[in-house]
Structures are given as structure tokens and as C-alpha cells.
Specification:
The complex is a heterodimer of chains A (311) and B (333).
Chain A lengths: L2 H16 L4 H13 L1 H23 L22 E3 L2 E5 L6 H37 L1 H15 L3 H10 L6 H28 L2 H8 L4 H37 L12 H11 L6 H28 L6
Antiparallel strand pairs in A: 1-2
Helix pairs in contact in A: 1-7, 1-9, 2-11, 3-4, 3-11, 4-5, 4-7, 4-9, 5-7, 6-7, 7-9, 8-9, 9-10, 9-11, 10-11
Chain B lengths: L1 H28 L4 H6 L5 H11 L5 H13 L13 H36 L4 H15 L2 H16 L20 H7 L3 H38 L2 H8 L4 H38 L5 H10 L3 H29 L7
Helix pairs in contact in B: 1-13, 5-6, 5-9, 5-11, 6-9, 7-9, 7-11, 8-9, 9-11, 10-11, 11-12, 11-13, 12-13
The chains are: A mainly alpha (311), B mainly alpha (333).
Subcellular location (chain B): Cell membrane
Protein name (chain B): Peptide/nickel transport system permease protein
Main location (chain B): membrane
Chain lengths: 311, 333
Amino acid sequence: MNTLLNKKKEPIDRLAASSAKGHSLGGEAMRRMLRSPVAITGGVITGLFLLLAILAPFIAPKDPYERYLQSEVILGKGIIPGAQAGFPLGVDDFGRDYLSRLLVGAQNTLLVGVLATVIGVVVGMIIGGLAGAFGGWVDTVLMRLVDVMLSVPSLLLAISVAALFQKPSQWTVIVAVSMVGVPIFARLLRGSMLAQRSSDHVLAATSLGVKRGAIVVRHMLPNSLGPVIVQATLTLATAILEAAALSFLGLGDPDPNRAEWGIMLSRSARQFLDIRPELAYYPAIAIIIVALGFTLLGESLREALDPKNRR
Amino acid sequence: MLRFLVRRLLQAIPTLLILSILIFAWLRSLPGGPAGALLGDKATPEKIADLNRILGLDDPIFVQYFKFLGRAVTGDFGNSLVSAQPVMSEIGNFLPATLELGLCAMLIAVCLGIPFGYLSARFRGGPVDNVIIVLSLVGVAVPVFFLGYMMQDLLAAPLGLPSQGRQMAGLDATTVTGFAVFDGIITQEWDAAWDAITHLILPAFALATIPLAVIVRITRASVLDVLNEDFIRTANSKGLTQPVVRRRHVLRNGLLPVVTVIGLQTGALLGGAVLTERVFNFRGLGFLLAEGIERRDYPRLQALLLFGALVYVLVNMLVDVSYGLIDPRVRVR
């Protein structure tokens, strides 16, 4: 497993190395971000999405879980989904207001993405941090495991983890998707720890007699946060897409009540694409826009932080 | 060259071993064993225990593992719990479909991705560049399965393309190798070959989207890097014509990272194939995997996941070999 795996690692490691450069890079990166239309577009999209997710319960015109139109239920069929007076985007097959579900869905989708990313970051950082802090055989063993995880295609990894649980639920999706991020964050943190080991600020702290644990926690970790944030932003985009893919494969949350874009998309795509394609298009467009926003933001952050682009 | 290949294969063994242990332990460490999945609602603790004994699942886990490993070395991955067929023959039967689909998708991604990436770099900052960049970013953000459904919904009828399966119902094509297009050609059943091609078009494009978008972006970045190099300035000042500079210097040097990404994406294709095959009802390995997951078919899942890793290792080797062909500096010793 040489070149190819190394190339998969290369951007991760380069990102990690950029953390050794210290503070000036952050300020400069910020200035560069504000001049880049890509960064601004990404920032605006993600900003709006966050705002929407926070405000959703207050701006949703109707109750997203209430089953309206019960009088129109057709026996054995439920409600024919689609346009209805008083429901701007129509109703789903349970007679629930689709617009309200989309709005509240922003919140749940963000929750899945953020939790999956956070778990990936935390577990990955613990593994990478231990490897980077101890070195030696701990490093070898942990990194070997991480390499094995990297050698399984990401969606396949998520699928196999999700498949292990008896009953699919929101949590099995979150755990499965988070596993994709673990090896990346582990490498990232280990890389930046190694890069910082010989950097000036760590040398200075060491010569002042600061204890090793304190150096790791107070000097090395804070300086590694930049690249982790970049990677987390990119991971958020893929996490939302992968969660949707798991739902589609029947490995997602089976609860039809949950308003979440991936669930709404896979349900509509499987059930009413022929009669009401728009019910699939709305959540799909929402997912595409949000994934695009996080990707734009992450890519521009990465570019801004890449020392190769410093002039 | 041969020695290099042998050495690389030997290096892959520890990775595959660790992976086999992980997959094995993983599959067994969580609730929902195959006995429960096979018996369904009728499962009583006694029946589950009986079935576990028959399947050998009540042995200590390391005994199970070594039994599995001993047989796996000889190519025997046991019988599928769903179909009762040997897993290896199942994989053999379904592999051609996925290979055909994957090859088509990679062909599309490479044949469109490299030229578009190159165009994008050449006209950097212009409208062509902007359109290509935006499309490639959107391409990665679209859920693969949704794209597949959209193609079925919007493209299949107007283009007169089938949107389901590998073969028209009722068409009785001769199977020789399992590669439907190839079979049609060697048996000179042109209808069957054409039928197979039309069945491949939509799923292949759906599967190609993500690798295509990634290849475009990498080609663009890499060509831009190369254009800044000193040797391009040297070539230009030597008075070489633009086509020669582009072909011999820019493209050749710009292709190295692209080859790597093609390799990585080929590995990732297995994941995408699960979704695409499901949407298009295209019976390949992805279909087999999806069914194996639903039924907790351990033997099948172990074999498929290890197979995926093995493919990855082999692709990795191919990439290394092609490095030497493109760039003499990294030629194999």
C-alpha cells in the first residue's frame, strides 16, 4: 500500500504541516478569504443554512409533524401527496406540510452532519494525538490501523459499519458516517504534532521547562485547530451526502416521522418519483446547495491556509 | 519489473490480514447475528443456538477466525447464507457486471475529465474555466442515487434508453464471459451487444459524475502547477511550438497526480456502484453487497469487503507501474 495510499494522505499531511507555521498564517488566510468570491459564496450559503436551522421552529408556517387533511384519506392509500391549497410546497403522503418539514429538516440534517463530524474529530484526534504525543510503537500500531481504515472506500466503510447494527436508527447513521472521518482526523493531528515538535514555539516552551503534557495541550493542540476546522468543514459536506446514501440503502433511520432531508429525499425518490417528482427535488436541491456551501467554504479555507500559496 | 510486482504483493499481505481480522471481529462483535436474520420473527433462543451450532458460530471467535483464514487462503470463502452458493462463485457471476459498469464509468470520467480540466487551466479565469469549475463542484455535491433517478426520469424516455437492468426482457443472449457487450461481439449477436451498451449508458454516466468532477479539478490544478515551472519557460524560450510544449511538457508532467486520483477514484467506485446498481437494478457486486447487508450474510460480506480491499491494492500497484511509464524519474529499479 504505497503510492496510492500516500497520495490519499498527501493533502491531509500538507494540511497538517501548515499548522506548524503559527499565527501569522491565520491572519493572512483570513484576509485572503475575504477577497475570494468562492469563500464568500461558501460563507454566505453556510451562514444562511445555519440561520435557517436555528430559526426553523419559529418560521415554519405549520407543525411539521401534524397530519393535516385527514378527511381526504383514501382507504389503503393514505393521502395522495402533492400540491394542496394552503400548503405552498404541497403535502407528503401523511398529509404533512412539506415546507415546514423542509425547514425543520434543516435542523435535523445539520444535527446529523455536525454530530457525525464531531464524533469523527474527537475519536480521530484521540488516536492521532496519542500517536503523535507518544511516538514509537504506539504510533506504529495506531497508524497501521488508520491506514487499513483508509484503504476501504469511504462509502463502503460507512455501509459496513451501518450494516452491523441490528436496528437502523439516527444514531447508527451518525456513528457509521463518523467512522469515515476518523482515519483522516487521526492522520491530520498526528501530522501536525510531528510538524510542530521541532517548531520554534514548542522548542521555546521546552527550554523554559514546561512539562510535556502541558506543551501538548496548551501549545500543540491549539495550533493544530486550523487544519482540523478545514477538514471538518469538508467532512460536513460528505457526511450529509453519506447519511442520505445510507437512508437510501435502507440503513438509515426508519422513522417516517423524522423530518430530515436525506430521509425525505430517499423516501420520495423511492416512492413518489413517478407521480410527484418535486417532493424529491426539494430536499435534493436543499442537500446539493448545503453540500456545495460547505465544500466551497472548506476548499477556500484549505487554499487560504496552504503554505504553497503564500506570496 | 516482476520483482517489483512480487514485492508489492507481499507488502499488501499484512494490510489484508489486519483488515480480515478487523472485518471478522467487527461483523461478530455487534448484535443481530445471521441466525436471527435468517429465522426472522420465528427465532427462539433454542432455534438460534441450533442454527449457530450448524453454522459453526458457537466456536470461540479465534477458532472461527483461523478456520476462516485457513479456507480463505485456498480461495474458499464458504457458502452464502442467502443463496447457499459458494461465495466465490457468486462473486465470479456478479463481477463482470460491475467491472463493465465501472470500466465504462472510469472511461467516461477520464475521457471527459482530462480534456475539460486542461481547457479549464488553459483559459484560467475566463468564462469557460468558471463554468467548468462550478459544474465540477456541483457534481460532487449531488447525491449519486438522486442523480440516477433524475436520469431515469428526464433522460431515459427522450433518448430512448432503457433505465432498468442489464438486458432487455425476453432477449436471450448467449453468455460466454459474462461481459454482456463483449459476449455480444464475440458471438456476433449484434442486437445483444447493442442492447447491453444501451443498458450501460445511463448507470455509467451516473457513476462517473464524482470521479469526473474530481479528475477535472485535479487536472486543472496540476496543469496550472506545471505551467509555472521553469522547464516550461525553458521550452518556450527554446522556440518550441505551442502544441509541442503542451503535449510533451505540460500534459506529460501534469498527468502524474491525475493518474493517482484515477486510482483512488477507481477504489471509491465500489461504494458508488452500490447506489447506482440499486437505482438502475443493475445486478452486480453492489447489488450482492446490498442483499448481503440486509440478510447479515457474513461469509458473503467478509469476501466482498476483502475483495474490495484487494482491488484497491491491485489498483495501487497499477498506478505505481504507470508512474514509471509516464515519468522516467520514478522508473522502477
